[in-house]
Amino acid sequence: MSASEFIPEGADLATLRAASCRCHGCDLYKHATQTVFGEGPESASVVLVGEQPGDREDVAGSPFVGPAGRLLDRALSEAGIDRETVYLTNAVKHFKFTERGKRRIHQQPGRTEITACRPWLEAELERIEPDLVVCLGAIAAQSVIDPKFRVSKQRGEVVPLGAGHAVATVHPSAVLRSPDRDAAYADFLADLRVARAAMR
Ligand code: URA
Ligand code: SF4
Fold it and tell me: Where in the numbering of this chain does the Uracil-DNA glycosylase-like domain appear (predicted)?
C-alpha cells in the first residue's frame, strides 16, 4: 500500500493538496479527521518537515498549529526565519493515535506508514524545489535525508540533498518534553540559526 496511486501526475501544489484529501495509501485515514497537507508558498526556498499532525492539527487541518507549533514559531522568529515565507509539512499526513478515555494520545508512525506516505512529501519537494530542507526530528530526517541518519550525532550539520541542502534538528515536541527545556530550546535555536545561515 502506498500513496503513489492517489497522486495525480504533473499536478501543481494546489491540485496535490486537493488529491491528498482522498488518499487511502495506508490505514491512518480511517480514524483521523482529515489529511493535513503542507502549507506555504510554492515559491518557498525553505521547506520544514515535521513528523505527523498532532491532535490540534488533525482538527484544524493545518500543520504546526498546536503547542509544538507555537514553540516552533517562537524559535523561527528568534532565528530570523519568517514563517510566512517557508513551506511547512510533515513526513506523514494523517494523525496516528490511540484513545484513552476522551483523550487521543499521539502514536509514532511506523515504517509502513512513513513509506506509504513518502510519495506525498516527494511530490511536494519536487514542485517546490527548495534550496534547503529543515528536518524536525528523526522521522523527517530518515524520510528525507537517509534512513540511517542519526539526529543525535548529525543535528545542525548542513548536508547536500539533491540540488540543494538539508539540515536536521530535534522535533519541537522533544524540546517541550525535555527535562531541561531551556537547554533543549537553546540547542534547537542554535540548529535553526545554522539553517538560517544556509539560506540564500
Ligand atoms: N508535530 C508535527 O510533527 N507536525 C505537526 O504538524 C504538529 C506537531
Ligand atoms: Fe495517505 Fe499518508 Fe494519510 Fe496514509 S498517512 S492515508 S499514505 S496521506
Answer: 37-193
**pLDDT (tens digit, 9 = 90+) per residue, 144-186?**
999 999 999 999 999 999 999 999 999 999 999 999 999 999 9
Distance 41 CA to ligand 2 centre (A): 22
Percentage, residues of the chain above pLDDT 90: 98
Architecture of the CATH domain 4-198: 3-Layer(aba) Sandwich (3.40)
Three-class DSSP category at 180: coil
CB of residue 191 inside a 6 A radius of ligand 1:
no
CA 5 to ligand 1 center in whole angstroms: 25
64 lines ligand 1 (CB under 6 A): yes
Q: Which amino acid is at 140?
A: A
- Provide the residue ranges of all domains of the chain, joining segments of one domain with +: 4-198
Q: Report the C-alpha gap between 101 and 178 in whole angstroms.
A: 26
Please name which ligand lies nearest the alpha carbon of 50.
1
The reply to whether the predicted model has a pTM over 0.90 is yes
